[in-house]
Each structure stands twice: as C-alpha cells, then as structure tokens.
Design goal:
mainly beta; eight-stranded parallel β-sheet; eight-stranded parallel beta barrel; 50% strand
Length: 261
C-alpha cells in the first residue's frame, strides 16, 4: 500500500504474507509512505511536501511464513521515506501490531534517505512488536538530510534483535531531538542503538560529518537485553561523525541471571 498524499488515515487493516522482494529492485514494505520520489515504482504524481498521515490500529503478521533470502531483505511493516529535497511532517504510527518481521527489515522505518530530505514530528506510539528483526529504526542517508522531533513513546518490544535504532548513514546529516520514552523492551539482542557512523552502501563509505543530537532516553523499562544501550561515533580520520547531548534518565535495566549453588 503506497501513501503519496497528505491528510490520509490507514486503519484496521491486516497485512500478512507480504513479499519483501515483490518489486525485484528494492524492498517493498506493507505500507510505504513516500514524500517526493521513492525507490519503488510510484505510479501517479508524487508530492514534495507530505503531512498528516496516520497509520493506526493495523496488524502486520508474518508468523509461519517462509521468505526467500531473508538474510538480505525481509518483510517490513511501515516505511516512511523522503526523496530528494522532500519535506514530510506529522506522520503518526500508533497502536499497531508487528509480528515476526524478520531478516534485514524494519517493522517501522523512518528514513530521511535522500540528499536534502527533511522529516519532522513523526510519532511512533503505543505499538506492539514481537519477534521482529528491527522494531523501530530512524536513519538518514546521502548528503545533508535532516530528521527531527521524532517521538518513540509507550511501545512494547519483545523477543527481537534490535529495539530502537538511530543510524547515521549520511554525509553531513542530522538526526535531532528524538524522544524515546516510556517503552517496554525485553529479551532483545540490543535494546537501544545510537550509531552516528553506520556504513552506507549507497555512499560506498561510512557516514561522515553526521550528527545524532539531543536524544532523550527516559522512563523506559529494559529487561534481559544482550546489550542495553550502545552509543557509537567516529574519529576525525575515518568517520568524523558524533553523538552529542544524550539524556539517559529514570530508566530501569534488569538482567536476570541463573543462580548457582
């Protein structure tokens, strides 16, 4: 399902058995919210400015389904994608359920993945994720994109690989003002990951001059992670990207251990 206009509500739908390689040229999610020109085939006119889209009360269920080549690409739920110089705002993804979105996939991906792209004020609120590869990912790519004011609040993430990931993949990009609050994350390999120096195959190099700034991680409950919080940046010779002004406050971390004796 492609969303290419403003003022749209997608509600009470169930997606199952989505073929992640149906396009055979790029990953196709169940719902693709596109501002400007996307990678996929996008019939009809696209909009450089897109605002006020709600994806609410839907179910994305890939349990019991075997997909080919999931090590390369897997079924994704909702991808918000900004094309070159596109401006997107006011996207709400709330009260949805994502089940067994495996492989190299995002259950919810917010991608400022083009030169000059702008995405602001995305809300990911009250969703349930179970056995997913990447529950929520914020990412920037190419040159000079900006992703700001994202709120990831009140979600439940269980039995997955990565809980919430912020990936700086760009050259001189910015991911700023992200709030991660009141989430319950349990039994994941990596609960929270802020990586300002991720490798971008489209740039054929590591991020450079990217900034992840003003991230608030507050009031979250994190239990039995492989790793609780990871912060990664580069140096002046290989990456020169940085993570700055991170607040970690009033979070709970629990790691159960077997008793001996």
């Amino acid at each position: 399902l492609m969303v290419q206009r403003s003022e749209i509500v997608v509600r009470w739908l169930r997606f199952t058995g989505m073929n992640p390689t149906g396009n055979h040229s790029y990953q196709e999610p169940a719902i693709y919210v596109i501002g400007g020109q996307g990678f996929a085939l996008t019939p009809g006119p696209t909009r450089q400015r897109l605002a006020n889209v709600q994806i609410v009360d839907d179910v994305f269920d890939s349990r019991g389904i075997t997909f080919p080549n999931t090590s390369l690409v897997g079924p994704s739920g909702v991808i918000v994608f900004a094309g070159p110089n596109a401006q997107m705002s006011g996207i709400t993804i709330a009260r949805n359920t994502f089940l067994h979105e495996t492989g190299s996939s995002d259950s919810v991906g917010v991608w400022a993945s083009s030169s000059g792209a702008r995405i602001k004020s995305v809300v990911v609120d009250g969703n349930t994720f179970d056995q997913d590869a990447n529950a929520v990912e914020l990412a920037d790519t190419k040159r000079g994109p900006r992703l700001s004011g994202t709120r990831i609040v009140g979600n439940t993430i269980t039995r997955g690989l990565n809980g919430v990931t912020i990936d700086g993949n760009a050259e001189n990009g910015t991911i700023d003002g992200t709030l991660i609050e009141g989430n319950s994350i349990s039994d994941t390999s990596l609960a929270l990951n802020l990586d300002a120096c991720a490798f971008d195959p489209r740039l054929a190099k590591d991020a450079f001059g990217d900034v992840i700034s003003n991230t608030q991680i507050v009031n979250n409950d994190i239990r039995d992670p492989g790793t609780g919080i990871r912060l990664a940046a580069g140096n002046t010779t290989t990456c020169a990207s940085r993570v700055t002004a991170v607040t970690i406050e009033n979070d709970t971390f629990v790691k159960d251990q077997s008793a001996n004796g």
